[in-house]
Amino acid sequence: WKLDKMTFGRDDRGRYYRNDAVCFEFSYTVQGDVLTETADSSHACGSGVTASYQISIAKNSLTMKYLGTPYESRWEKSPE
After folding, report:
1. Is pTM beyond 0.85 here?
2. φ, ψ for residue 43 (rounded to 5)?
3. How confident is the prediction along the chain (80 residues), in pLDDT tens digits per residue?
């Protein structure tokens, strides 16, 4: 999954990319340190249609712990 990327806009909308192609678009909310994303449709990458993560940020690294599972991922801030 090294070619996966997520972008978040200020309008509570985001995109999940795999291999530079949009895999799905989503809406998101943040409450405290919990990020919940809801995909616009079914998709073949990322988690399910709705997923909640506990997030933490250290410098340019963001860690997402998928609530209810042992799954965790780390994301690096893009220089773009």
Report:
1. no
2. -155, 170
3. 567 888 888 899 999 998 889 999 999 999 999 999 999 988 888 667 888 999 999 988 889 899 988 989 888 887 76
